[in-house]
Amino acid sequence: MAFFLLLNLSTNWIFCIVTDTSNNDIEPPLDPVELSSWRFCSDCKKHEPPRSWHCKICQSCILKRDHHCMYTGCCIGHWNHRYFLMLLVYMTYSSTYVTVLTFKYIWSYKYDEFFNLNTIFKLFCPVSMLVLDSASFLPSCFLLPTCLNA
Ligand SMILES: [Zn+2]
Ligand SMILES: [Zn+2]
User: Fold this and answer.
1) Which domain holds residue 56?
2) pTM for this one?
3) Is residue 39 part of a domain?
């Protein structure tokens, strides 16, 4: 199960990055009536198909551009939208899987420590550790201002 998730997560991510989303391979139509619906991009200096949008970071026009993704470092458009959506699906699914697996592991090994009101409260309100944990109170005094500044 974990291998299946890792495989799908990584391949969709890689395909999302390596897929060329630019309009470089699309030639403008020869028919002037059809060409009139195309937009002229002043940055690319050529006619671009309808529903394409110029990305200033990619320096290219992207067909059905959704956004410039900072996690993949490329634009999400018509040609890689499918990989991006599958990446989101598998990322959500694998995050849930890892969370459940981690909870099960902690539950089985540290049942007494895990299943008490103090721990559950700390899970949902981590700031309470400042007051509740005497051992971590002093380091927290130094860490908190650093965290707040970041
Ligand atoms: Zn352009
Ligand atoms: Zn872009």
Assistant:
1) 20-78
2) 0.70
3) yes
